[in-house]
Amino acid sequence: MKLWSESFQDGGVIPGRLAFCVIDPKTHVALSANRNPHLGWRDVPAGAKSLALIVHDRDVPSKGDDVNREDRDVPADLPRVDFFHWTLIDLPTSMNSIAEGDYSDGITAHGKPGPGSSPGIRQGINDFTSWFAGDSAMSGDYYGYDGPCPPWNDTIPHHYTFTLYALNVERLDVDGRFTGQDVRKAMDGHVLAEASIGGIYTLNPTLADNAGN
pLDDT, tens digit, for every residue of 77-108? Predict the structure, then answer.
């Protein structure tokens, strides 16, 4: 399979309009347009019965002690974990693209509703659900896409991977309030093919200057 985007270049910097937050020189960060990117694909295997999409950040700090602290940086050698930004399942094989902004265009406090999307298509909760769990102004179930918002004091840029899977089942065996990890487990043994693209993003001004933001 082949996967691409008209919204950002594979391996390049993700534009701020696709992010949850952008750099603000006074407050470190400001909320952004939070639009899902365009994605297009082709060469889906003939035996596929559905498609699934997972978007994750592989560079999230495994501990939050240093995150967004004025008096310290998040060290580059800190172990990193996955953070899921979008899980979209049961896409029909007749579908070959997602338009920019179709699934997310702006930030919804307390999260967008789900899991239903277009007819027959379902979205899981993303990891902003746990990130905002203790924030009364933002807490809720964050279904669908919410874009990059890495720590503004992180010493490494974050890498975001968009992976499309062709599956041999019409409906994945997950229900209700499912996560990216749930989908990964449910797909085990059902993947016929996959394709990935990626981009980088940072809210650290020094890193952004070097990356060409």
Answer: 999 999 999 999 999 999 999 999 999 999 99
- Write out the DSSP string of 101-112: TSS--S--TT--
Short-list 92, 212, 95, CA closest to 157: 212
Nearest to 138 by CA among 146, 118, 150: 146
Residue carrying structure tokens 């924030």 = 135
| pTM higher than the cut 0.90 | yes
Task: Report the candidate in 161, 164, 121, 162 with the shortest Cα–Cα distance to residue 1.
Answer: 164
Cα(38)–Cα(175) distance, integer angstroms: 26
CA distances from residue 40 to 44, 89, 96 in whole angstroms, order as listed:
11, 16, 6
CA distances from 26 to 30, 132, 203 (A): 9, 22, 13
